[in-house]
């Protein structure tokens, strides 16, 4: 094997043996993705997306999402969401979303600040909207005093590690469209959903009428990069202008595009996501019977949510990185990544058991 540190003055400053469960973006880059970046290096290519990799990427995305799909690579997920949502709304528009949606709780107000977008949120038990829940905010059409609900945004898989079924998304889209609203899917973990549902990506997006998608790469093995994927180009227009004015247009776009090619041209997206999901199931199975640990949400993708005594979590955090999801209830979130190993899970579960035993 070649020495990965050869030929550089940079020094490795971290311990690669340290693993955690804080987020799937704590992981590094999948070797096949790194190899793809190297492949695209050398020589000159036209900047700002006029390169051969971005041109080919359109075919790659069409093979997954259908002939009308258009892919617009961007830097990050917040940017993808802000760009996609702006394209769905007039200046007086609003987006209906779950209260727990990333766009509401984890984007620092970027949709509001950068996109000028009003969010109309709904509390949900499991991070999932339904037509009935959407109706809590789908009112006041034509009333100039109310920001006009023009779009619905759902997340698949959700921020709470749950999944929409194909039929649940179909029902949401039908309902939204009946009210004249377009539908955005935050697919930061869309591949985890496809792996878990065992259906093609298009089955719960294009085929059920979703209009636009933020397709995630970073959490599934890319160095960085997400894609705004337009599925309904008749209704979702001008992404290229919105991407530039939202500061999401990469000049060296070939290096984002080639990463998505590595992920999506074969089955790497499914291998990575399926593995992360399997590690979350393994973790759930390993902690389920530990006295005092309660897994509080269905484990349907790559996240496990649990409640255990706060002092135990705090001691555990000195050994492994992870976050409190809810400071009030003491609920914690454990995320698995494409590179989480069975040994990582077993060692973590043993540490949980050990710390519980210490009371
Ligand atoms: C559901 C969801 N959407 C979008 C994002 C994108 O975030 P970022 O802007 O950090 O790439 C994340 C990252 O945590 C996420 O969990």
From TrEMBL:
Residues 21-306 form the Aromatic amino acid beta-eliminating lyase/threonine aldolase domain. Its cofactor is pyridoxal 5'-phosphate. CDD domains: TA_like (cd06502). Gene3D superfamilies: Aspartate Aminotransferase, domain 1 (3.90.1150.10), Type I PLP-dependent aspartate aminotransferase-like (Major domain) (3.40.640.10). Keywords: Pyridoxal phosphate. PANTHER family: L-THREONINE ALDOLASE-RELATED, LOW SPECIFICITY L-THREONINE ALDOLASE. Belongs to the threonine aldolase family. This is Low specificity L-threonine aldolase. It comes from Kitasatospora aburaviensis.
């Amino acid at each position: 094997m070649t020495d990965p540190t050869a030929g550089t003055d940079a020094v490795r400053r971290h311990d690669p043996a340290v693993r955690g469960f804080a987020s799937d973006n704590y992981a590094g880059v999948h070797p096949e993705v790194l190899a793809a970046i190297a492949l695209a290096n050398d020589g000159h290519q036209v900047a700002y997306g006029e390169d051969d990799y971005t041109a080919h990427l359109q075919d790659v995305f069409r093979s997954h999402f259908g002939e009308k799909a258009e892919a617009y690579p961007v830097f990050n997920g917040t940017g993808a969401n802000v760009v996609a949502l702006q394209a769905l709304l007039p200046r007086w528009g609003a987006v209906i979303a779950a209260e727990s949606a990333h766009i509401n709780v984890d984007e620092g107000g970027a949709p509001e600040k950068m996109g000028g977008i009003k969010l109309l949120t709904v509390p949900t038990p499991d991070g999932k909207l339904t037509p009935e829940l959407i109706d809590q905010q789908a009112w006041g059409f034509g009333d100039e005093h109310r920001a006009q609900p023009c779009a619905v945004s759902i997340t698949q898989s959700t921020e709470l590690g749950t999944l929409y079924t194909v039929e649940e998304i179909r029902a949401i889209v039908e309902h939204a469209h009946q009210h004249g609203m377009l539908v955005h899917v935050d697919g930061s973990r869309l591949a985890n959903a496809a792996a878990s549902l065992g259906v093609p990506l298009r089955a719960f997006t294009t085929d059920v009428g979703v209009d636009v998608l933020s397709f995630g790469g970073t959490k599934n093995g890319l160095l960085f990069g997400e894609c705004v994927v337009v599925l309904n180009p008749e209704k979702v227009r001008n992404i290229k202008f919105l991407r530039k004015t939202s500061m999401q247009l990469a000049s060296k776009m070939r290096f984002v595009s080639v990463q998505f090619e590595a992920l999506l041209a074969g089955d790497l997206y499914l291998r990575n996501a399926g593995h992360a999901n399997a590690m979350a199931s393994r973790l759930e199975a390993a902690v389920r019977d530990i006295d005092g640990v309660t897994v509080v949400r269905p484990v349907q993708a790559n996240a496990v949510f649990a409640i255990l005594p706060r002092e135990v979590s705090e001691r555990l955090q000195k050994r492994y990185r992870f976050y409190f999801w809810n400071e009030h209830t003491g609920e914690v979130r454990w995320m698995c990544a494409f590179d989480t190993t069975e040994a990582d899970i077993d060692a973590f579960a043993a540490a949980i058991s050990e710390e519980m035993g210490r009371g």
